[in-house]
Write a structure and sequence with these properties.
This protein has about 180 residues and is α+β, with helices and mostly antiparallel strands. The chain has a single domain, classed as Chalcone isomerase (3-Layer(bba) Sandwich), CATH 3.50.70. It has six helices and six strands. A six-stranded antiparallel beta sheet has the order 1-2-3-4-5-6. The longest helix is centred in the middle third of the chain and has 16 residues.
Length: about 180
């Protein structure tokens, strides 16, 4: 009887213990209120990574990550699509009209019209690919072809959507000041 209890306990421990290969879950590293022309509140951007102190590397590495944007105003889905596609093209140094890699194009074209108070979450997992959520409901899943992490270039590339947001989220992540 005692032997069975030990075996059950060992199996339970093995099943609940993280393995050496398990990637750490992303944690909230930084939040930032976004403003357009320093006047109009656009929303709040949040960055989630496994190791906040290594944010500058991890935003483009193949590690689980999340970028969230809670909106303070309504936005048209077509405007978000156009911005995502063009920002990715610039960061990937693709010619105008050139096709984006499949997982990036898949997610970039998934945005829909949103209202003030809505929240978009872009989640990347190296094992699963990219996912777009609106208010915690899945909108789109795009499998990874080995380049899906590049979607985060929209916010953290050399030519980001919003340079001050990129710089401030990375700085706050690395200094532990969310």
């Amino acid at each position: 009887m005692q032997k069975i209890g030990c075996v059950v306990g060992l199996v339970a421990l093995l099943l609940t213990s993280p393995t050496a290969d398990a990637a750490p879950e992303p944690q909230l590293c930084a939040e930032l209120e976004l403003r357009a022309a320093l006047l109009f509140r656009v929303g709040t951007a949040s960055l989630y990574l496994p190791d906040c102190a290594r944010a500058e590397d991890q935003v483009i590495d193949r590690v689980p990550k999340q970028f969230s944007l809670e909106l303070a105003r309504s936005l048209a889905g077509d405007d978000l699509i156009e911005s995502a596609v063009e920002t990715l093209r610039k960061n990937l140094e693709l010619a105008d009209g050139a096709a984006l890699p499949e997982p990036l194009d898949c997610l970039a074209r998934a945005y829909i019209d949103v209202e003030a108070g809505d929240r978009y979450d872009v989640i990347y997992d190296p094992e699963d690919g990219l996912a777009l959520y609106l208010n915690n409901e899945p909108l789109k899943y795009c499998p990874d072809d080995g380049r899906a992490e590049l979607y985060f270039l929209i916010w953290f590339g050399e030519e980001p959507f919003h340079r001050r947001m990129r710089d401030e989220l990375l700085k706050r992540s690395q200094t532990g000041r969310s």
